[in-house]
Write a structure and sequence with these properties.
single chain; mainly alpha; 11 helices; extended
């Protein structure tokens, strides 16, 4: 019994130490991000003619679903939606208020759009920071920051049975979240910048990328065909594309060869078993 108690105690202590080392995001900013995300979820529910329960459900998914996806995948430390006692009540209250009085957020739509991308940047930083503190590689930290930022919207669209917004051609939204998480990891791990300053810069980068894409109508690409590019661009791209194409062809050939060899071995084993059964039948 004592080893089990000791293990639980050590786990709790290590979790508290890691939590103390995470980015100290002010509670007001955290709740502001939850409120904005919950408001967008409630507005989406109204647009799709859902009832109050549906509005609350979508609001909770949008505002807290990304962090829940992150915590379920990581299985490290506390679950944010359970650890922060104000998160769930604030999301529910926001959903009820917006569902009942939608004019509160329908009029200042520009402000809501700014706060929305601010919450995306903040969630990306929080997700990347929590993953980094548990010693995961940089690419995993960026991925978890991405899931934290846009996972709620992904769950919302899945519940509404439509193609998730982050997968559609649009102004840079998911890419902005990736840029924010990547910026935070680079600033903290490579440049050793104070994590609070890195968080502020990363949120600013997320908002700047999003604003830049809207200002100049930069859209995420849906199709890339190098044959349709201008000739000067082709000349620049060829030295990069050719080695990649040769490597892909080499890998494809190796894969096909291995698959063919596996198929022949399977046929040979089948023939061998057939011969053994035939020999056994003759002996009888």
């Amino acid at each position: 019994m004592f080893p089990a108690v000791l293990a639980v105690t050590q786990s709790a202590v290590s979790a508290s130490v890691i939590a103390s080392e995470s980015v100290a995001i002010p509670l007001a900013f955290e709740l502001l991000a939850v409120v904005v995300a919950a408001a967008t979820g409630a507005l989406t529910a109204r647009e799709n003619k859902l009832d109050l329960v549906g509005a609350i459900g979508l609001a909770v998914l949008v505002s807290l679903g990304g962090g829940l996806i992150r915590d379920v995948i990581l299985q490290e430390g506390n679950v944010y939606i359970l650890r922060q006692p104000l998160a769930l009540p604030v999301a529910i209250a926001t959903a009820a208020a917006v569902f009942t009085f939608p004019v509160m957020v329908e009029k200042p739509d520009r402000l809501v759009a700014i706060l929305d991308i601010f919450s995306v940047g903040l969630f990306a930083v929080m997700g990347a920071d929590k993953t980094m503190l548990y010693g995961y590689p940089a690419i995993t930290c960026v991925m978890m920051g991405f899931f934290t930022a846009v996972g709620g919207g992904l769950l919302r669209d899945v519940c509404l049975a439509r193609v998730p917004y982050i997968f559609q051609r649009s102004n840079l939204y998911a890419i902005a979240a990736i840029a924010g998480a990547l910026t935070y990891i680079v600033l903290v791990q490579c440049l050793d910048i104070w994590n609070i300053a890195a968080a502020v810069i990363s949120v600013a980068v997320t908002m700047a990328v999003r604003w830049w894409s809207i200002r100049y109508n930069i859209m995420s690409p849906t199709e890339v065909d190098l044959h349709k590019l201008p000739e000067p661009v082709k000349k620049v791209a060829r030295p990069v594309v050719r080695p990649v194409r040769k490597a892909a062809q080499h890998v494809s050939a190796k894969t096909s060869q291995a698959a063919e060899q596996a198929r022949l071995r399977k046929i040979e084993r089948q023939h061998k078993r057939d011969r053994q059964r035939e020999t056994h039948r003759h002996r009888r």
